[in-house]
Write a structure and sequence with these properties.
alpha/beta, Rossmann fold, seven-stranded mixed sheet, about 45% helix, binds S-adenosylmethionine
Length: about 240
């Protein structure tokens, strides 16, 4: 299992929470910088898919600094609940919704996506952007999503995947394994976070493997939408 800090004996979950606490003040800036703003376009694609259905209560897992939850609030939804294990990330999310007067529609909670504190069949839709890769136990996380989703509900999962074709694959690998870790260390002052980003994408079971995992926990109509030469994907799946 890939963990952020090689010399630590703590669990992956503890290390991930610590790491995101540590980089939370630089997270948004570095995200947009390293992706040249494309991460915003990817979140918008997810929003456009979500828009097609009428969802009342939406759960945004691994909500981080809340950007996806805030975008969802522009749709016709009643309530959005964002959950994250990093208090540091949530503090920034809280500030944003306060400034935007969105506290009546969005609420954030410190919580674990692998142990969701909501009853079965509660949410109309579940979203998660760049979160599943960080789970300690991916299968348990997916089972939990299935459990708390209502019948006929959908999950929308945005995650990095690997470019397969020359020259995008080579450029992407160099950029992700060398440039981002170098700049990430300098700017975030966390020596491991951006090495972990590359390694965690490398080992993540993307594409058909991920679709199989969704199927295994009971989701139906599982599909992958490939973005920008395959460097990211949105997975959509339904609960019948
Ligand atoms: C790369 S950030 C993504 C944040 C946000 N969704 C976005 O699109 O910018 C990953 C987030 O997942 C959170 N996370 C990782 N494992 C988690 C878990 N088991 N439960 C809840 N949040 C988790 C981290 O704390 C972090 O804020």
């Amino acid at each position: 299992m890939i963990k952020p800090y090689k010399n630590s004996y703590k669990s992956k979950k503890e290390q991930v929470a610590f790491m995101f606490d540590n980089i939370s003040s630089k997270y948004d800036f570095l995200n947009h910088l390293f992706s040249f703003g494309i991460d915003k376009i990817w979140r918008n694609k997810l929003i456009n898919l979500l828009r097609k259905n009428n969802h009342k209560i939406v759960l945004d897992l691994a909500t981080g600094t809340g950007d996806l939850a805030i975008k969802i609030s522009k749709l016709k939804v009643k309530k959005i609940i964002g959950i994250d294990i990093s208090k540091g990330m949530l503090n920034f999310a809280e500030k944003k919704i306060k400034n935007k007067n969105l506290e009546n529609i969005i609420s954030f909670e410190l919580g674990d996506a692998e142990k969701i504190k909501f009853e079965n069949n509660y949410f109309d839709a579940i979203t998660i952007a760049f979160g599943v890769r960080n789970f300690e136990n991916l299968e348990i996380g997916l089972q939990e999503m299935f459990r708390v989703l209502k019948k006929n509900g959908k999950v929308f999962i945005l995650e990095f995947s690997k470019a397969k074709k020359f020259p995008v694959k080579q450029i992407y690998n160099f950029y992700f394994s060398k440039i981002i870790p170098f700049l990430g260390k300098k700017i975030s002052k966390d020596n491991s976070a951006y090495d972990y980003l590359y390694s965690s994408v490398e080992v993540f079971p993307e594409g058909n493997k991920f679709l199989e995992k969704l199927n295994d926990v009971g989701f139906k109509n599982c599909k992958q939408i490939s973005l920008n030469f395959g460097i990211a994907s949105i997975y959509v799946a339904e609960k019948f």
